[in-house]
Amino acid sequence: MRLPFKITFLAAVMALTTHTVFADTSTFKNDDDKTIYAFGASFAKNFEQFFTKQDELKIKVDNNQLIAGIQDSLNGKSKLSEEEIQSTLQNFQIKLSEIQRVKMEKEEKIRAEQAKKNAKAGDEYRAKFAQEKGVVKTKSGLLYRIDKKGQGDNAKASDTVVVNYKGSLIDGTVFDSSYKKNTPVTFPLEAVIEGWKEGLTHLNKGGKMTLVIPPELAYGEQTVGTIPSNSTLIFEVELLDLNPPAEKATDADKTENTANEKATESKDAATSKDAAK
User: Fold this and answer.
1) Is residue 43 assigned to a domain?
2) Which of 42, 66, 146, 166 has its CA 20 to 30 A from that of 89?
3) Does 210 reside within a domain?
4) What pLDDT, in 10s, does the model give residues 165-221?
5) What three-state secondary structure class fits 188?
6) How do strand 233-243 and strand 208-213 relate by DSSP bridges?
7) Which phi and psi (to 5°) does residue 185 adopt?
8) Looking at the structure, do residues 75 and 138 belong to the same domain, yes or no?
9) Is 231 found in the same domain as 146?
10) Residue 17 and residue 36: Cα distance in Å, rounded?
11) Domain membership flag for residue 230
12) Which residue range is the domain that position 15 belongs to?
């Protein structure tokens, strides 16, 4: 694979040397000069990340060698043949890929270890919470406590609900809150995590509850935003309103509506004839 260095290397002469052709960057002879200078500036910004990661890449970047390579190539005196250039850059690409692979494996190992810790800590938290007064544990493992009883109907899994809520991790970190936004949230229960879908069916309109949701009823092993893998989630939820789905019209309703529509059409036609006489 050929690496796209040829165009940007030419621009690097202006970007990386103090003896640049355009010492005065405030003016340019023409648009071509300005364009070439822009290539150099863009290259320098992109290459900056490479310089800042020298330790990670385990390579010492010598600016003088970079500039020498550009100048020798422009003067037709390159110390490397085209084949040697491509071979060297391909070997370097392989080295970068290997470094990235090792890095990803380390990160994955760290995530896996953290996920185990999160799962264990969550198990301990839920076991302790289950012993508190008023807490109910369902067959699925969901824990909930009614903090304030409502007066209306219980929510159903098919309902659209209007709620205020605060979501936090077991260490108290708040990852989401409608209270901070000062705006209740409306959504269909079918669209949310299983812990919410099940939990709110135990709450009346106007009521308030605490949900403690195990990972398998939340996001499981996924990391979602600021929610780590295997997290037990805690929600304080107020059910402000609920809207059942619209009932589907029965066959009898459809027949009656069709008959009414035809009767209206006939009446309108008769009125039109009378008006024409």
Assistant:
1) yes
2) 42
3) yes
4) 999 999 999 999 999 989 999 999 999 999 999 999 999 999 999 999 999 999 999
5) strand
6) antiparallel
7) -115, 140
8) no
9) yes
10) 15
11) yes
12) 6-79
